[in-house]
Amino acid sequence: MRKNSPTTQTLPSSNYTCNEYREEMILLALRQKLHNPDLSSKDKDKLEKEIAELEAKIGF
Fold it and tell me: Fewest CB atoms within 10 A around its CB: which of 6, 16, 31, 55?
């Protein structure tokens, strides 16, 4: 029996869509922006609201 190498393995099919991936990447970017030391409290509050809305939308 031949073992599959990492380059020949196939992943099981999934219902994970491009839009879901995109939303997760947007969420990641928003979270990273929160670490900016130059961010005003107003902008930080706005980002936190956007993050909460997106997390609710995607079920995090």
Answer: 6
Residue with token string 């409290």: 41
**Matching residue, tokens 């936190």:** 48
Confidence of residue 16 (pLDDT cuts 50, 70, 90): confident
Alpha helices in 1-40 (DSSP H): 18-33
Largest CA distance in the chain: 61
Which amino acid is residue 50, in one-letter code? E
pLDDT single digits (tens) 18-59: 999 999 999 999 999 999 999 999 999 999 999 999 999 988
In terms of phi and psi (left: phi > 0; alpha: psi -120 to 50; beta: otherwise), the region of 3 is: beta
